Amino acid sequence: MEIAKPIFIIVASITLFGILGGLDPSNTIFEMGLTAVVVGLIFAGVAVLREVKDQVLARL
């Protein structure tokens, strides 16, 4: 089950990238890069919130 988590994250990030319009053929390199940054910020934000939740619960 340890290999399933990274695979899920990769598939989810590609799916989110496509939903946000990153896979549109008419996009420029800048637009694709900006969409990739937004997807990265979303995943980083979720990871930070998960860490904060774990730290708060550990202190209780």
List the helices and strands and how they pair.
Blueprint: H1 4-19, H2 29-59
**Largest sheet features:** none
The overall strand count is 0
The SSE string, one letter per element, is: HH
Q: Provide the helix percentage.
A: over 70%
Proportion of strand residues: under 5%
Roughly how many Å is the radius of gyration? 15 Å
Summarize model confidence as the mean pLDDT.
90
Low-pLDDT runs of 5+ residues are none
| Terminal residue distance | 29 Å
Number of helices: 2
Overall 3D form: elongated
- Give me the secondary-structure category: mainly alpha
What does this structure look like?
The chain has helices spanning 4-19, 29-59. The two termini are 29 Å apart. The longest helix is centred in the last third of the chain and has 31 residues, at 29-59. The chain is mainly alpha-helical and 60 residues long. The chain is built from two helices and no strands.
Supply the key terms:
60 residues; mainly alpha; 2 helices; 0% strand
Short description:
The protein is an all-alpha fold and 60 residues long. Helices cover 78% and strands 0% of the residues. It is built from 2 helices and no strands.
